[in-house]
């Protein structure tokens, strides 16, 4: 009987541990990358620039770690290369990222489903909702890199 009780206790402990791990809080931590083909990147440009652009290369990564995210973009447009880095504050519960510096404010709301980060809403104090940045952020699918 003593061994039976120990066996039951061990099974309950294992079940509780599995349940806690399975139901534990999942974080958004990780690196998400958006790298469209040249054709897709060209289509995201405003119509009047599509013919002038030639080859367009875009690679954007968002690395979320805790309450911070590093937004990094590498673009090549009409032979000009540009790299940018920004650090955002992240609220993983509210699914928002905020950037504020030198009078510019950007707020992004996002969702993650099946390891794909999608930007849902873009608020930018400097550019309008019809701007290139706002448009491509809304169509970009950032895939998690393992």
Query: Which stretches of 5+ consecutive residues score pLDDT under 50?
Result: 10-14, 16-24
Strand content: over 45%
Structural class: alpha+beta
What overall geometry do the principal axes of the alpha carbons give?
globular
Number of strands: 8
Largest sheet entry: 8 strands, antiparallel, barrel
For the CA atoms, what is the radius of gyration?
22 Å
Q: How does CATH name the architecture? A: Beta Barrel
Strand order of the largest sheet: 1-2-3-4-5-6-7-8
- CATH fold name, please? Lipocalin
Mean pLDDT comes to 78
The helix tally amounts to: 4
Helix content: 25-40%
N-to-C SSE string, H for helix and E for strand: HEHHEEEEEEHE
What's the number of structural domains?
1
Which CATH C-level class is it? Mainly Beta
Measured distance between first and last alpha carbons:
48 Å
Tell me about this structure:
The chain has 146 residues and is of the alpha+beta class. The protein has one domain: Lipocalin (Beta Barrel), CATH 2.40.128. The protein has helices at 2-23, 38-44, 47-53, 132-139; strands spanning 30-34, 56-65, 68-77, 80-91, 96-101, 104-113, 116-124, 141-145. A hairpin with a 2-residue loop joins β6 (104-113) and β7. The longest helix has 22 residues, at 2-23. The protein is globular.
Question: Secondary-structure map with pairings?
Answer:
Layout: H1 2-23, E1 30-34, H2 38-44, H3 47-53, E2 56-65, E3 68-77, E4 80-91, E5 96-101, E6 104-113, E7 116-124, H4 132-139, E8 141-145
């Amino acid at each position: 009987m003593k061994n039976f009780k120990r066996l039951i206790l061990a099974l309950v402990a294992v079940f509780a541990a599995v349940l806690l791990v399975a139901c534990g809080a999942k974080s958004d931590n990780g690196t998400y990358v958006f790298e469209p083909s040249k054709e897709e990147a060209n289509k995201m440009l405003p119509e009047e620039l599509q013919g002038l652009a030639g080859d367009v290369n875009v690679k954007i990564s968002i690395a979320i770690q805790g309450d911070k995210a590093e937004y990094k973009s590498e673009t090549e447009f009409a032979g000009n290369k540009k790299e940018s880095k920004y650090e955002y504050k992240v609220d993983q519960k509210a699914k928002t990222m905020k950037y504020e510096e030198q009078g510019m404010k950007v707020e992004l709301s996002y969702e993650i489903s099946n390891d794909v980060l999608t930007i849902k809403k873009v608020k930018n104090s400097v550019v309008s909702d019809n701007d290139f940045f706002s448009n491509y952020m809304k169509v970009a699918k950032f895939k998690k890199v393992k």
